Amino acid sequence: MTDPEGTSAHTLEALQRRLAGFAAARGWEPFHTPKNLTAALTVEAGELLEIFQWMTPEQSRAVMREADSASRVEDEIADVLAYLLQLCTVLDVDPARALAAKIDRNELRFPAPPGAAGGREPG
Questions:
Q1: What are the residues whose beta carbons fall under 8 Å from the beta carbon of 82, sequence distance 6 or more?
Q2: For the purposes of burial, counting CB atoms within 10 Å of the CB of 12, is it exposed (0-12), middle (13-18) or buried (19 or more)?
Q3: What distance lies between CA 36 and its chain's CA centroid?
Q4: Does the pLDDT at position 98 exceed 60?
Q5: Is 123's pLDDT higher than 70?
Q6: HSE of 79 in the Cβ direction (CA atoms, 13 Å)?
Q7: Segment 31-85, tens digit of pLDDT
Q8: Distance in angstroms between the alpha carbons of the first and the last residue of the chain
Q9: Residue 1: which residues within 8 A CB-CB, separation 6 or more?
Q10: Is 2 helix (H, G, I), strand (E, B) or coil?
Q11: In terms of pLDDT, which residue wins out, 53 or 115?
Q12: Is 73 exposed, middle or buried (0-12, 13-18, 19+ CB in 10 A)?
């Protein structure tokens, strides 16, 4: 799928433009402050967490095998991402650049042991 400019409609930039247009068409921009978007992001992340709250680790790994739970997970992930992208737009943060820079810092902070092919994440 491409947008009117001929670029992929699924790039972060294209999705940010769609979200901004959606909000603008409804007059929601005055409410899209960093504080409000961060609060909404937190609420949506909590709704995603709620799906997994009482699952065993094995159940959580299998959540996408059932159509209803998979749909709920995808919807909540979409909500989290939508608010995060809107926050990035309002604050003029390039999310891909910010993530790449964070990965760079983490690679320095948490170097892989010599010879390790698939190290474990801390925590």
A1: 19
A2: middle
A3: 17
A4: yes
A5: no
A6: 17
A7: 999 999 999 999 999 999 999 999 999 999 999 999 999 999 999 999 999 999 9
A8: 39
A9: 8, 9, 10
A10: strand
A11: 53
A12: middle
The model carries a pTM of 0.84
Confidence of residue 8 (pLDDT cuts 50, 70, 90): confident
CA gap 89, 117 in Å, rounded: 36
Question: Are 47 and 83 spatial neighbours (Cβ–Cβ below 8 Å)?
Answer: no
Q: Which residue has the tokens 């474990």?
A: 120
Using DSSP's 3-state secondary structure scheme, residue 87 falls into helix
- Written as six digits, the tokens of 70 are 């998979």
Q: What are all long-range contacts of 27-36, with beta carbons under 8 Å and residues at least 24 apart? A: 32/86, 32/90, 33/90, 34/87, 34/90, 34/91
